[in-house]
């Protein structure tokens, strides 16, 4: 099977009916970078910058952050990279940054952008490192756990202030900066009309999103498998978001784990998603699925199943059996 996937590396992720799908990979460490070439990914759709913080005993200095981001951009070459600002706190506690206070519900606690907006120094240093690393290039930066549009705006302003500051000093800055919000807190979906005009792109973190939709801990051994990301609640939610983003002409990517599983990726494509960022190990299997998929057929079938409230996982499995898709 691995040999089969290796044959697909240089081939596009295109469906039988000619829909080109962007398949990006998720990464977070220098050691992930060789996967770009090995998998033939279209770029890095999610670079989890907190990993450098998690493996470090002390706060990584700005120069070290810059060097890592430079290495990522160099490895990607012409391929786009989307950096996510630190998602620290919750399950990713960093002793030298996180509040020492014990939290009852760390996943819903003082984490990610919430923490970063409260620790402006941290955010400024990271913004500066990203801007320096991407001088002369395109910088795509997104913020995790945006819960209300003002948080996105506040974060964007911090990066913009640093960019202005560099320009005033005559320093090199990125040729372009694109700002995105991660949608992983359900409440944000109710204010897309406000958010979408503010952002350059949207990225859906289905790991957290599904955990919050079902109020079910994503890492709890008894619960992790219990609520299906192919449930109607999740899929109807995701459908509304992709429709709103398409309507507003805002590119939207799914960067949670579900996109890396062929059956779930099929469902996402049938809902209208055309950009997935997934674990490197998923690129081969998902690309193989895409290259045998008649997406127009599946999209029509999916609409029927959703309207009828069918069990989507079972319906997809039946469809695969009939059509012989991976
Ligand atoms: C997510 O929540 O789906 C996501 C991509 O981010 P993380 O898994 O790092 O929380
Ligand atoms: Mg998340």
Automatic annotation (TrEMBL):
<protein>
    <recommendedName>
        <fullName>phosphoenolpyruvate--protein phosphotransferase</fullName>
    </recommendedName>
</protein>
<comment type="similarity">
    <text>Belongs to the PEP-utilizing enzyme family.</text>
</comment>
């Amino acid at each position: 099977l691995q040999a089969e996937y290796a044959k697909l590396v240089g081939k596009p992720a295109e469906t039988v009916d000619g829909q080109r799908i962007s398949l990006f990979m998720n990464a977070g460490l220098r050691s992930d970078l060789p996967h770009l070439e090995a998998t033939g990914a279209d770029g890095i759709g999610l670079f989890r910058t907190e990993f450098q913080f998690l493996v470090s005993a002390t706060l990584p200095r700005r120069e070290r952050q810059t060097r890592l981001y430079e290495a990522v951009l160099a490895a990607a070459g012409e391929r786009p990279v989307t950096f996510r600002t630190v998602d620290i706190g919750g399950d990713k506690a960093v002793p030298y940054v996180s509040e020492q206070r014990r939290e009852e519900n760390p996943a819903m606690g003082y984490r990610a952008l919430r923490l970063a907006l409260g620790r402006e120094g941290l955010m400024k240093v990271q913004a500066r490192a990203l801007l320096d690393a991407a001088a002369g290039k395109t910088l795509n930066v997104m913020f995790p756990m945006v819960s209300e549009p003002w948080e996105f705006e506040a974060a964007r302003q911090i990066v913009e202030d640093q960019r202005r500051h560099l320009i005033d000093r005559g320093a090199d800055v990125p040729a372009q900066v694109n700002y995105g919000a991660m949608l992983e807190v359900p409440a944000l979906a109710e204010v897309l009309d406000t958010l979408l005009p503010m952002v350059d792109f949207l990225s859906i973190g289905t790991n957290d999103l599904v955990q919050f939709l079902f109020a079910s801990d994503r890492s709890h051994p008894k619960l992790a498998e219990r609520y299906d990301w192919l449930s109607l609640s999740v899929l109807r939610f995701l459908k509304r978001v992709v429709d709103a983003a398409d309507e507003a002409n805002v590119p939207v990517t799914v960067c949670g784990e579900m996109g890396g599983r062929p059956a779930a990726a099929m469902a996402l494509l049938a809902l209208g998603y055309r950009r997935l960022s997934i674990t490197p190990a998923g690129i081969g299997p998902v690309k193989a699925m895409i290259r045998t998929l008649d997406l127009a057929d599946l999209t029509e079938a999916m609409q029927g199943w959703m309207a009828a409230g069918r069990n989507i996982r079972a319906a997809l499995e039946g469809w695969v059996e009939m059509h012989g898709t991976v």
